[in-house]
Amino acid sequence: MGPGPVYTRRVIVVIGPLAYRPGPPGGTGEAAGLASGIAAAAAAAGAAVEVAARVGDDPAGDALLLVLARVKVGHTATLRDPTLRTLVVEGPEQDGEPLVPLADDKAAPGAAASGIPGVDGEGAGPPGSEAPAPLDAGDLDLALGYLLDARVVVVAQALGDAAAATVARHATFSDATVIAVVGPGTPVPDALDRAIVFERDEGAGEEFGTLVGRFAASLDAGAEAAEAFDAARAGLGWSPAAD
Q1: CA-CA distance, 235 to 238, in Å (whole number)?
Q2: What residues contact residue 61 under an 8 Å CB cut-off, 6+ apart?
Q3: How far from 55 is each of 1, 155, 234, CA to CA, in Å?
Q4: Cα separation, 173 vs 140, whole angstroms
């Protein structure tokens, strides 16, 4: 992410860590992590969506952004970090579980068949952190500065006080609604005290990301929060905490 165009179209911004999950031999991979699930669900509901994240400048990062583009999720505000190895994961995903990297000596299934060299524990990128790297206040200031007409901002990672204040400032400027996704019993930063909060239960599954993404898309389309939640939970079996 560097100097580039400023986007002024209405958009949903999803902030959170990303990872790449290789597909089976001969198949295609997919984006992993709660943020990607939320973004994909919002895009499937017809919204324009951008993810704000940090990924490696490596083959796995290339593959990750390609699969996001295939589901119409943009990455204008995603930082490519040459010091970071894009996280590559395997196995079924539960939205409430942490992203777990492949072991260094275990090749990612289907990497060779997909034609993406280096998507494994040894060659995913230059030496560096293997954990999804959260965006700090400076990163978020730059990322959200590209997306001046954000109408909904979904925070799907823990934020420190400075980063939360940065999100709040940009949301105020663009008159955006903030959705904060937190773990059980996790407080929302003071700067985001006006956010709509979704508490992620342990082992919630991929339906949780679908719920939040649909909700964000409905808000973006002009629905009130209660109406948006009713539309989002249709067929998913979720109910508000107050019910």
Answers
A1: 8
A2: 20, 55, 80, 86, 125
A3: 10, 17, 33
A4: 14
In angstroms, how far is CA 217 from the centroid of its own chain?
14
- pTM for the whole thing? 0.81
Tell me the C-alpha distance between 31 and 170, whole Å.
27
- Token digits of residue 105: 């000596």
Q: Are 76 and 140 in contact (CB under 8 A)?
A: no
Q: What percent of the chain has pLDDT over 70?
A: 74
Q: How far apart are CA 190 and CA 177, in angstroms?
A: 16
What are the tens digits of pLDDT across the range 178-213? 999 998 889 999 999 999 999 987 666 778 999 999
